[in-house]
Amino acid sequence: MIRRMENIVESKLCWNDWYKAYDYIAMVSAPTKPKYMRWEKYNSLLSELKQLQHMYYLKEVKSLGSLRHGIR
């Protein structure tokens, strides 16, 4: 999941310096649109990134909750 988020941000949106501003890929808010990219493509990539980030956060919260209750 993290690799897919990194692929969207680095390869498709051409933002290779995200790690200078953010600690984790899941914290990236909205990279700027590359000049050559159409708005439809940009919006679809951004919505996919947001969906992956949301799933990642839910997975992390669930794992923290299971650790809290001693469930593995």
Secondary structure layout plus pairing:
Blueprint: H1 2-12, H2 18-21, H3 39-68
- Strand residue content: under 5%
Largest sheet entry: none
Order of helices and strands: HHH
- Overall number of strands: 0
Oligomerization state: single chain
Total number of helices: 3
Counted up, domains total: 1
Explain what the structure shows.
It is a single chain. Helices cover 62% and strands 0% of the residues. The chain is an all-alpha fold. It has one domain. α1 runs antiparallel to α3. It starts with a helix and ends with a helix.
Brief rundown of the structure:
62% of the residues lie in helices and 0% in strands. With 72 residues, the chain is an all-alpha fold.
